[in-house]
Amino acid sequence: MPTAVLMAPSALDATPHSKSAHASALPQATSISSGFVALSNGRSEHMNRPTASSADVSHPERGRGVFATRDLSAGTVIDISPVLLFPADEYEQHGQHTQLDSYTFVWRRSKEGSEMALALGLGSLFNHDPIAPNVSYTLDHSSQVIRFTTARPAQKGEELCISYGAGRMWWEASEGESSRADSHNELDEDELLRLGQGLDEDWEADKGIATMQHINRHGLRNGHPVKPSASSSDHGPRDAALSTTPSLASTAQPRSAVAQGKQPERGRLWRLTEAIDPESAPLELLPAWVIDVEPRRTGAFVSFQQAFKKAVQAAGVCEDPQLIVRHLRTYRKTMLSPPAGAEASSAGHSRPAEKPRPILQGMICAQQNMPSKEMLLELLVRLGASSFTVNGGEPTPYLVDVPADPAPSRSRLADWTSYWPTNHQSRGNDCAGLQSSNASVPLIVDRMKDEQLWTPEALQWARSHLRKCVDLALEAKSKGQVPIAARVTLPFHLPPWRGGGVPRTTSSGTTHTSNSSSRAGEDSPRSDGATTCEEPQALRNAAAAAIAAADAAAVTSAPIEAAAHDTRIEERNPLKHAVTNVIKTVASIRSEREKERHKLLGHSLADTRTPSPTVAGARSTQEEVELGEEHRASALIAAAGGGGGGSGGNESPARVLYFLYPSPGAGGCCGAATGKLLGGRDGGPYAVHEQSGLNHRFEVWRWLGPLDEDATEEDSAKLKQELSIDGLEP
Ligand SMILES: C[S@@+](CC[C@H](N)C(=O)[O-])C[C@H]1O[C@@H](n2cnc3c(N)ncnc32)[C@H](O)[C@@H]1O
């Protein structure tokens, strides 16, 4: 059963991290790897088979790090680190003010913050490489471990680094100074130009994003939840490459708030929808075959790709091996490290240290289009791959996880491009937000637009109605009833042409809007050109009739405000839920109005039928009732007529439902069972409000945060307890 009032944030993104869950993860975790890495501070006792020195490679800037103690192929599992989890509030209050803050990973987001993880074992000691990290990692929520895997081959002695994300890191130069990451970006661009890749606006956009992320100094904390590719567990120990690389900055808060450095509102409304929010849509990956390409041999690689396509077609493997990776760029720049020991002295003479040099990784095709590595190798050799391989060596294709789709927006491009340079979707009309509640299920929701829609006045409107619901629910409780209340009202965002405006009370005692109170017939006697001196009496009669009709219409069309609480206990009737009760109240108000309308028209009730509404807003009441009937399981405020953001001038009425708490373990439109809030696609398991097969689609908004602006967490918890939120039956 539903109830009124404040949401339960912790229930939304609950990550089980009870002691037993944690303990069960431990046997799977093999922290401290299998003898091929070394820490840079000489703690070689950690290694099973230490083979590389480590004390002498400690870096003056980076400090300790993780180093390969033998040559490693791509896809080698370096470490599976069990994690120590910190709930968001504990971390906010304590963890972030300690040294931990330089070591923790974002584990899971919730609407009130991020649950953080400290990787035990080697996991906390990987340094950051902003350009070409040779290690990728995957968060395994079920086992509570992080898996670190080489993203490409690494040589003995090479430092193993992950990427903490894009933008300037907290230890890097501050405003005005050229940051390390920025100068690397410039290098990328120069190199790309030299290699004939050219620059386009996407690369420029990358720079923009990096700048924006400087607002948040927490590179690691900016990590965005990533959906690993389904096949990442299929990577063999040799062939596997990236499972997932760490992702870039993007936060659970609306980006605009982040960009402006604003704190999130203390209380706001969040649209529950199956539609994807480009700003929080999960990044999905798929494995693709890549190969290292000599930068000066890109022409030969392009020729290979063409020949490869024909050969794959001819072999009947697939029609177009590049089709599903078309949103990806052909190349990604990476660095080739010099062979280990290259800088060592030789015959007593020291020689200058060799620097890593840039090479390219060339995209061949998605693994699903070429499942057989043997066949791929055979084709590479047959089609003359040595003409573009690095130093003309043996072709060695390997798998890398790459974005399965284009970036959903320009602002997410940096996330996508951290895996592989990717195009982004343009945001045309079809992506501009929810079209309307009457349209088919929208694909993309514009959260930024939603955010702008809820001005302080609109939020105040919602807050005051929800507060009234809470008061009524508490009243119900004081009478021994289930503390649930529902309310029907006119939406704040109802456009004026549909009866929007400031509600006012008429002399007849009904409430209606300033717009709907205008009399449709008042001007007509003169404006229709029918006013003549010859027929004054007939015109007067017509005018009087028109005014009476308008009055009558106004009576029935005026918006209804109604509220009711649950009376199931009192009436010993399981159907007497707050929403069915409010429907009954609405129905009786309508019936009274109908009588008054008939009186005004001088009709008897027996010989008339309800006419079609003629004044804007007239359908509201009926819609409100329908809404309540459908959604009694979670409604608190049902409002009809205008709806929330994104209606974009659509003139058909929208139905809107606002609520505070979902029903525990249930909920047709609020996602209570899945708790997907803020992760995108959070319409819940049923998303009944968006079912294309149903007539009554509507918008659903949930109040997030405290209801009262000055409420403390204790106040919220107390209120939740008062309303028995956790004790309600589903
Ligand atoms: C997760 S820890 C890595 C282990 C760390 N080097 C140590 O000795 O404990 C992150 C810290 O390492 C340092 N660090 C990591 N990558 C770096 C880099 N590329 N340049 C400079 N410092 C780096 C920063 O001080 C950062 O706060």
TrEMBL record:
Pfam families recorded: SET
- List the biased-composition ranges (Low complexity): 505-518
Stored SUPFAM superfamilies: SET domain (SSF82199)
Q: What is the top-level taxon of the source organism?
A: Eukaryota
Q: Where would I find the SET domain in this sequence? A: 50-165
Extract the Gene3D superfamilies matched here: SET domain
Transmembrane stretches, start-end: none
Q: Segment Disordered: which positions?
A: 42-62, 218-266, 495-533, 709-730
Cite the record's Polar residues compositional bias ranges. Answer: 242-254
Q: Where is the signal peptide?
A: none
How is this protein named in the record? SET domain-containing protein
